[in-house]
């Protein structure tokens, strides 16, 4: 009995996309401890996109395209979150600045009136 020259391993074809997702998920889980928030969001988006591409498509290209779209989506979510955080910090700092300005003005008025 001869083995075929072009025989493929068992996990080739439709199962290879799932193996890719499993390996990518494990890599993200292990490497997530040292990732920045941006890297976590982009990696999570890529993993979700790869899973979606693998489930909806029939080839490895579907998983790769899904991963690329998911990574782009994760990056966009990260930038939106950073913008929200910066706006929140700016509002807090403006309020603190106004409070300090009013406090200084009150102190100046007290010194002028001698109280």
Summarize the structure.
With 115 residues, the chain is mainly α. It has a domain at 14-83.
What does this structure look like?
The protein is mainly α and 115 residues long. The chain has a domain at 14-83. It contains three helices and no strands. The longest helix has 54 residues, at 60-113. It starts with 13 loop residues before the first helix and ends with a helix.
Task: Outline the fold blueprint.
Elements (H helix, E strand, L loop, with lengths): L13 H18 L5 H20 L3 H54 L2
Proportion in β-strands: under 5%
How many E-type strands? Answer: 0
Largest sheet: none
N-to-C series of helices and strands: HHH
Low-confidence stretches: none
Helix content: over 70%
Main structural class: mainly alpha
Q: Give the number of helices.
A: 3
Mean of the pLDDT scores? Answer: 82
For the CA atoms, what is the radius of gyration? Answer: 27 Å
User: In angstroms, what separates the terminal alpha carbons?
Assistant: 107 Å
Shape: rod-shaped
